[in-house]
Amino acid sequence: MINAYPKLDSAVQFGIGILYEVYHTYQYGLIIIAFNIFCILLLTADTI
């Protein structure tokens, strides 16, 4: 990913981190919630 968007990049890394943790602990239970948080982070980082 191009580093022209540091906030977007950090949001992506944070979202992937959440998805990774959730996948390995619950695999199915909270992964939808984590994905929603990930999408919200992408949207907010995109509008800032």
Record the SSE blueprint.
Layout: H1 6-25, H2 31-47
Helix pairs in contact: 1-2
What would your notes on this structure say?
The chain is mainly α. The protein has helices at residues 6-25, 31-47. The chain is elongated, with a radius of gyration of 11 Å. The mean pLDDT is 73.
* Overall number of domains: 1
Note poorly predicted spans. none
In DSSP terms, counting alpha (H) and pi (I) runs of 4 or more, how many helices?
Answer: 2
Tally of DSSP β-strands: 0
Portion in strands: under 5%
Biggest beta sheet summary = none
Structural class: mainly alpha
List keywords for this structure.
2 helices, 48 residues, mainly alpha
Quick recap of the structure?
By secondary structure, the protein is mainly α. The chain has 2 helices and no strands.
